[in-house]
Amino acid sequence: AKLLVLHGPNLNLLGTREPEVYGRTTLAQIDADLGERAQAAGHALESLQSNAEHVLVDRIQAARGDGTALILINPAAFTHTSVAIRDALAAVAIPFIEIHLSNPHTREDFRRHSYFSDLALGVVCGFGADSYRYALEAAIKRLAR
Ligand code: DQA
User: Fold this and answer.
1) What are the pLDDT digits (tens) for 76-120?
2) Domain ranges in the chain?
3) Which residues fall in the annotated binding site?
């Protein structure tokens, strides 16, 4: 099946961005690892990072017509602000898993609320770059049902 991985704002800086919070793995390393694992399981995986809300909304809308079976998304700061991305995911009705490197529940109060969690299949947070791996594993298992 076809899997789409979406990364929100500032995740292009992974590796150097607050490494004590987000680790030292780069986004390119995460995407390469996910791509290999998806391929080994017989799936196709495409990744997109954007700092722009509308780019993520447009990509989600396009996913309705391109055969995407499941979306893995780290909305980053948009987690806590974006009704537009939430609405796009609801509109296309493609199942998605919410991912965070950090555990937002242990951080500032404003990170405790997510516009996504109540619509998500599940949420993986707090395991650094491994959060993406665990989410992919859950996605692969679900696609095999
Ligand atoms: C994040 C957590 C968000 O609160 C933050 O704005 C991010 C990254 C994470 O992966 O831990 O940019 O989504």
Assistant:
1) 999 999 999 999 999 999 999 999 999 999 999 999 999 999 999
2) 2-143
3) 74, 80, 87, 101-102, 111
Residues 6+ apart with CB under 8 A from 54: 84
2-143, CATH topology level: Rossmann fold (3.40.50)
3-state SS string for the chain: CEEEEEECCCHHHCCCCCHHHHCCCCHHHHHHHHHHHHHHCCCEEEEEECCCHHHHHHHHHHHCCCCEEEEEEECHHHHHCCHHHHHHHHHHCCCEEEEECCCHHHCCHHHCCCCCCCCCCEEEECCCCHHHHHHHHHHHHHHCC
Is the ipTM of this structure higher than 0.85? yes
Cα gap 80→23, rounded to integer Å: 21
Binding site for substrate, residues? 74, 80, 87, 101-102, 111
The answer to whether the CB of 7 is under 6 A from ligand 1 is no
